[in-house]
Specification:
single chain, mainly alpha, Arc Repressor Mutant, subunit A, Tetracycline Repressor, domain 2, 10 helices, 75% helix, 0% strand, elongated, DNA-bd_HTH_TetR-type_CS
């Protein structure tokens, strides 16, 4: 249902089709639609953020704390698993980005969801690592992860043909680690 709603939104915009038309094309009842989604916008975004967050949190907390250097590895591995479960065809990804381009309010909603997930993930990291939620290390790990996700998303969006999100993401993390591994001495400012 998500792939069809993305395609229809990319082609016609959200106002260009009804939930009934979407249900007819997919072959489900209106009731079935509302068992999974509250709105057409939810169908386009395609996730139940509450359920996804609970599953992700459970998986992350089940991993033993092994110190700050590996927190990002744990998060990255779980994110790759999550996105791997959502992997679609190149056309489905293109339809998603086309739908976001066509409907700026979807992009705003997606960004808002990302900010909330970022806040939740910071609290989760802090809890697992037994530090306050405002600990700069918990914030840094999550900011780095979301920066990598945005960068990988941009690369996937601009690449033509098949792509490997996991490789792009892990390569980006390797590059970030390389850049941060060799600190350059700082000059004192007058």
């Amino acid at each position: 249902m998500t792939s069809v709603s993305r395609r229809l939104t990319a082609q016609k915009g959200l106002a260009g089709f009804t939930i009934e038309e979407l249900c007819d094309e997919v072959g489900v009842s209106r009731r079935t639609f509302f068992n999974y989604f509250r709105t057409k916008e939810d169908a386009v975004i395609g996730a139940d953020p509450e359920a996804d967050s609970q599953v992700f949190a459970g998986q992350f907390m089940a991993r033993e704390s092994r110190g700050w250097p590996v927190v990002i590895d744990d998060l990255l591995e779980l994110v790759i698993q999550h996105f791997g479960a959502l992997e679609g065809t190149v056309h489905e990804h293109a339809d998603f980005f086309a739908a976001l381009d066509r409907e700026p309010r979807l992009l705003q909603r997606f960004i808002g969801m990302s900010k909330e997930r970022e806040r939740q993930m910071t609290a989760l990291v802090a809890e697992r690592e037994s530090v306050p939620a405002d600990d700069p290390r918990a914030q840094a790990v999550v900011h780095i992860l979301f920066g990598l996700l945005r960068s990988a998303g941009d690369r996937v969006h601009t690449l033509a043909g098949p792509h490997d999100f996991a490789s792009i993401l892990t390569d980006s993390l390797s590059a970030a680690r390389l850049v941060m591994a060799d600190p350059t001495p700082r000059k004192a400012h007058p």
